[in-house]
Amino acid sequence: MLVRPEAHGWRWLLACDGEVLRSGDGRPPQVQGARVALILPGSDCAHFHLPAPPRAQA
After folding, report:
1. pLDDT > 90 fraction of the chain, expressed in percent and rounded
2. Of residues 41, 40, 44, 43, the one with CA closest to residue 31
3. What does the pLDDT read at residue 11?
4. What mean pLDDT is predicted for residues 29-50?
5. Could you count the other beta carbons within 10 Å of the beta carbon of residue 23?
6. Alpha carbons 26 and 2: distance in angstroms, whole number
7. Which residue among 14, 25, 31, 34 has the highest number of C-beta atoms inside a 10 angstrom radius?
8. What is the pLDDT at residue 36?
9. C-beta neighbour count of 44 within 10 angstroms
10. Can you tell me the distance from the alpha carbon of 58 to that of 56, in angstroms, rounded to the nearest whole number?
11. Radius of gyration of the chain (CA)
């Protein structure tokens, strides 16, 4: 299964070893390290456990 952050309501996901560390809808963080992946809209990454999407503001 491929993961696209925008399909889950996020603008970016920060993942390490298949686990999502942080997610958000603002500016993505600076990333350093071979085991860390910054997943931006349009990126396909498999096997990530996604956090719950942000709640829509009424």
Report:
1. 0
2. 40
3. 74
4. 61
5. 21
6. 22
7. 14
8. 67
9. 9
10. 6
11. 11
| Dist. CA 27–CA 50, nearest whole Å | 19
Contacts of 53 (CB under 8 A, 6+ apart): 8, 9, 10
Q: Give the pLDDT confidence of 4-23 residue by residue, as tens digits.
A: 667 667 777 777 766 666 66
Between 39 and 32, the higher pLDDT residue: 39
**Cross-sheet strand order for the sheet of 12-16:** 19-24, 12-16, 36-39
- DSSP codes, 5-42: GGGGT-SEEEEETTEEEEEESSPPPP--STTEEEE-TT
> Which tokens hold the place of 6?
């925008």
Rounded to a whole number, what is the distance in angstroms from the first to the last CA of the chain?
Answer: 31
